[in-house]
């Protein structure tokens, strides 16, 4: 499998945007399982417990002036997995990501790709292809200006309507 976004982020010069559209991802993630069992809480003050390679990559990118934004289109009430993502988002924000949430019912008139994606500097697109049960099956890198523009336009439409993490109160 090709490298994750963490490997592409260091090459970004201006921006990295990420759109997530699934309500469920692979449920064997150890952090998710620990959170589900009540053994894991994510707060800015317990950074040593959750800071990992992704957070290093985001912090380094933001420190050199790259804007890193993540938007999630979610069903409400939130699935258990997305509730975990909401709890975990404090770590993304602490690393320097901007995170927003858009309830799916508010996206009904938006043209949004059916897959999760990243766009780096408006040029390189990283598509994530998942199985029905949320297992990441393939990472596909595409350098197609038209696709990058369309994904960016879709992301910006979601971003404009979405609620910043600090203000979003899940149903």
What shape does the CA trace take? globular
Distance between the termini: 36 Å
Strand content: 15-25%
Q: How would you classify the helix and strand content by structural class?
A: alpha/beta
Share in helix: 25-40%
Report on the biggest sheet. 7 strands, mixed
Describe this structure in words.
This protein has 171 residues and is an alpha/beta fold. Helices cover 35% and strands 24% of the residues. It has six helices and seven strands; from the N terminus they run αβαααβαββββαβ. It has helices at residues 5-8, 30-36, 47-50, 53-63, 80-95, 145-161, and strands at residues 15-20, 67-74, 98-103, 116-120, 124-130, 136-142, 163-164. It has a seven-stranded mixed beta sheet with strand order 6-5-4-1-2-3-7, with helices on both faces. α4 (53-63) packs across α5 (80-95). It is globular and about 45 Å long. The mean pLDDT is 93.
SSE blueprint:
Blueprint: H1 5-8, E1 15-20, H2 30-36, H3 47-50, H4 53-63, E2 67-74, H5 80-95, E3 98-103, E4 116-120, E5 124-130, E6 136-142, H6 145-161, E7 163-164
Parallel strand pairs: 1-2, 2-3
Antiparallel strand pairs: 1-4, 3-7, 4-5, 5-6
Helix pairs in contact: 4-5
């Amino acid at each position: 499998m090709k490298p994750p976004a963490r490997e592409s982020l260091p090459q970004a010069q201006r921006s990295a945007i990420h759109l997530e559209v699934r309500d469920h991802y692979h449920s064997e993630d150890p952090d998710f399982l620990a959170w589900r069992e009540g053994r894991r809480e994510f707060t800015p003050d317990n950074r040593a417990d959750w800071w990992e390679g992704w957070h290093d990559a985001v912090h380094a990118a933001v420190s050199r002036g790259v804007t890193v934004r993540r938007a999630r289109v979610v069903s409400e009430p939130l699935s258990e997995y997305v509730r975990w993502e909401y709890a975990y988002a404090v770590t993304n924000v602490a690393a320097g990501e901007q995170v927003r949430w858009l309830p799916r019912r508010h996206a009904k008139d938006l043209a949004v790709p059916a897959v999760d994606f990243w766009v780096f500097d408006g040029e390189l697109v990283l598509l994530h292809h998942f199985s029905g049960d949320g297992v990441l099956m393939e990472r596909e890198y595409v350098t197609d200006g038209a696709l990058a523009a369309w994904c960016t336009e879709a992301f910006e439409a979601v971003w404009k309507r979405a609620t910043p993490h600090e203000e979003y109160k899940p149903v």
